[in-house]
Amino acid sequence: MRHLLSTKRLSDGEIRQLEGAGWRIDQYDAISIEFLKTEVAPGDHLLIFTSKNAVTAFFKSFSNLNFSACRSLCVGDGAAGMLTDKGVNVLEVFPSASQLAGSLGESYTGDSFVYYCGNLRLDLIPDTLDNLKLPWQEAPVYKTLLNPIKWDREYEAVVFFSPSAVRSYTGRNPMGEATGYCIGKTTSAELSKYTHRIICPKTPDRASLMDLLVRRENELK
Fold it and tell me: How far is CA 196 from the centre of its chain?
């Protein structure tokens, strides 16, 4: 029996899927999220979201706003779906923050921006906007709290859904011979500081990550 640790609670369906593929599962929440209120209104700026948590927090801050005039760029189909459902005009969806950053100097130099983000956000988007000398504001809308726990066994696989979860897990545990399954490139870049045994789906979403885990040919030897 192969042992897997997920750094985020899985759904009942995901657990059944993985158990059916021969995994024995431990799971916990390596991080927790605290939503924050922001007064930085979207106005006529182009909005940037790089996580579903930022989208959720944005809607909590402006629950009475008509979002039909809002325009956005975002990372991930999940975030895009949440925005579209509320009437936000999603101009482009990117598989990673680095690809979103790369588009700013190509297509959006005439815009001003609001970056709705967490307190542990990476410097990539801010540095890109600064280097391009584009007007922008940062709006922290959630706080990520690490929940470091020491695990006493070695795992064949550890599953990560965010860079913060990588930092939380590796703060108390070595990767050893475990393969790190990461939901996207930003998460895998963080994990690459601790191991070269990394698998990442082409599409950064949970379904694609689960698909990798149930296919034995994806295992690293």
Answer: 20
